[in-house]
Specification:
Layout lengths: L1 H37 L1 H8 L2 H22 L2 H9 L5 H25 L1 H8 L5 H16 L1 H9 L3 H24 L1 H7 L11 H18 L1 H5 L7 H35 L6 H35 L6 H25 L1 H4 L14 H17 L1 H5 L4 H25 L1 H26 L6 H19 L7 H21 L1 H18 L1
Helix pairs in contact: 1-9, 1-14, 1-15, 3-7, 3-13, 3-14, 4-5, 4-8, 4-13, 5-7, 5-8, 6-7, 7-11, 9-10, 9-11, 13-14, 13-19, 13-20, 14-15, 14-17, 15-17, 15-21, 15-22, 17-20, 19-20, 21-22
């Protein structure tokens, strides 16, 4: 028994070492890439008014929804079947062919019915906006499986370099196009763009960046074999479609607030103006979502490849607990120093800064839901992803429907938080019956209660950049971290051993 426990502990140490190693690579480059991308937020919110920025927010929300439909949940499906006793090349080729066919059908349909689609979306005067995004979606769809292959092969560095390259090209072209009168003047000489606003330059920059990413993977495309394995395709689609439906409900849940703001706020209250403010405010809270994305990229392949290992459930439980603490730490950090973070935005966008803590907490629960979702992915019960996300979506829709016309985007922020909390509760209750994982709920609740108490304590202080209150909030953050280390003996001992080994090497 002692031998088993020792083996399990050592195994989990190796798993965490792998997880943290991949997370560090994804994290450093993703944070760097997103920091570059973040330069667009102060730039755009100072160039474009909220109503124009609302157009950008609207299109990217719609793109996020359509991307789920086009990728069909095959990224996770690819992990699942490539991890089994299957030929990686065969799974890769067939997964790619599925997505290529789906993307091509979407491209043809959208091209034929471009003007009706543009009218339906409210852009009848600018169908070129829609066409550019159709092309971007097509390019991004057919590179989804090559990106997943890099993750499965453990090529984290290459993955993030390509992703970062895409961001760098996009951001650089935004600055070049929008700050140079030559491009602005030449734009309206092109017949297709003669009626376009400057916002189209943002879309053109994205189009070029997506095209460059597509070109990078040309070697992977040359390896594609046109040998359709219909049985394999059926198995992949059967496994992935429920994830796609669940993912679709999830992304609609995430994006529904934008559509409710656009269509349910009365015209006299300027819905696109409010949508622009809300889109800008979201950029601050999405800093926490960046951590979630980094964690997901690093953790998901490890969850699949270690599902049969001894002590894997303990690993899942500890991962969820540590993730939850780090998420709450980020929530506190941004909430404490919101007077600094709001400077990211142009002055016209800061009126909605009060919703940031609500949005941050919604992302805390969203990330925790990802940790809990491991049970239905590993047991092939992906239909539960559909059930939970649709129920969460229903909660979101109901709260948005009744609150947005009255309270505007404040109603949307609360709807997002409540819906993710409901999904967490449902996933935990059902999951513990089918695939019990020993989550340390007592400790998790302690960290949550302490973070909320510290948050409300900070609210008693004035929102200011005064050095005295800045230091007090800093000491509150230190207290939160020290409490975590006091309660987590394993983490404390590990940090102590690292420091001691470093000290010995320095001598």
């Amino acid at each position: 028994m002692a031998s088993f426990c020792l083996t399990t502990v050592e195994s989990n140490k190796n798993l965490f070492r792998t997880l943290f190693g991949h997370a560090a690579i994804y994290g450093i480059s993703s944070v760097g890439g997103r920091f570059i991308n973040y330069l667009l937020v102060p730039y755009h919110t100072r160039i474009f008014g909220p109503a124009t920025y609302g157009i950008i927010t609207d299109f990217y929300a719609l793109t996020a929804v359509l991307q789920i439909l086009l990728t069909l949940g095959l990224e996770t499906g690819f992990f699942r079947f490539a991890s089994k006793d299957r030929s990686h090349a065969e799974v890769f080729s067939n997964s790619f062919l599925i997505l290529f066919s789906n993307g091509l059908l979407f491209l043809l349909f959208s091209s034929i019915f471009l003007h009706p689609i543009a009218c339906f979306l409210g852009y009848s005067s600018n169908p070129e906006y829609v066409f550019l995004f159709v092309l971007i979606l097509f390019f991004d769809t057919i590179v989804a499986i090559p990106f997943s292959k890099l993750r499965l092969d453990g090529k984290a560095l290459e993955f993030v370099l390509v992703k970062s390259g895409n961001i760098l090209i996009n951001v650089a072209l935004n600055f070049v196009f929008l700050s140079n009168t030559y491009f602005i003047n030449q734009l309206h000489k092109i017949p297709a763009f003669e009626n376009s606003g400057l916002v189209v330059l943002v879309f053109i920059a994205n189009f070029i960046a997506s095209l460059a990413t597509l070109a990078y993977f040309y070697r992977e495309f040359l390896r594609i074999k046109l040998n359709f394995n219909y049985q394999l395709i059926k198995e992949i689609i059967t496994y992935s479609i429920p994830l796609m439906i669940g993912g679709l409900a999830g992304i609609v849940n995430d994006m529904a607030d934008r559509f409710f703001i656009k269509y349910m706020i009365p015209p006299e209250q300027h819905p696109m103006y409010q949508l622009g403010i809300y889109g800008g405010i979201l950029k601050i809270s999405i800093l926490l979502n960046l951590f979630i994305q980094v964690y997901r990229f690093a953790a998901e392949p490890i969850f699949f490849t270690t599902s049969d290992s001894k002590g894997s459930k303990k690993f899942y439980a500890d991962s969820a607990k540590y993730f939850f603490f780090v998420s709450l730490f980020i929530f506190l950090f941004i909430s404490f120093y919101i007077s600094y973070f709001e400077m990211i935005l142009g002055g016209n966008y800061r009126s909605g800064i009060g919703i940031v803590p609500i949005l941050l907490l919604s992302y805390v629960f969203f990330g925790f839901y990802f940790n809990l979702s491991v049970w239905f992915k590993l047991t092939d019960r992906t239909r539960f992803a559909v059930t939970f996300t649709i129920l969460g979506l229903l909660v979101n829709v109901l709260i948005n429907y009744f609150t947005v016309p009255i309270y505007g985007f404040y109603g949307s922020a609360w709807a997002r938080l409540v819906s993710y909390f409901v999904m967490v509760v449902l996933s935990y209750i059902v999951g513990q019956r089918i695939f019990p994982v020993p989550y340390d709920l007592k400790r998790i609740f302690e960290y949550f209660a302490l973070s909320i108490a510290l948050f409300f304590l900070s609210r008693l202080m004035p929102e200011t950049t005064n050095i005295f209150f800045t230091l007090i909030r800093f000491f509150m953050l230190c207290f939160f971290l020290l409490y975590f280390l006091f309660r987590e003996v394993d983490v404390r001992n590990k940090l102590k051993s690292i420091l001691l080994s470093y000290g010995n090497k320095s001598h």
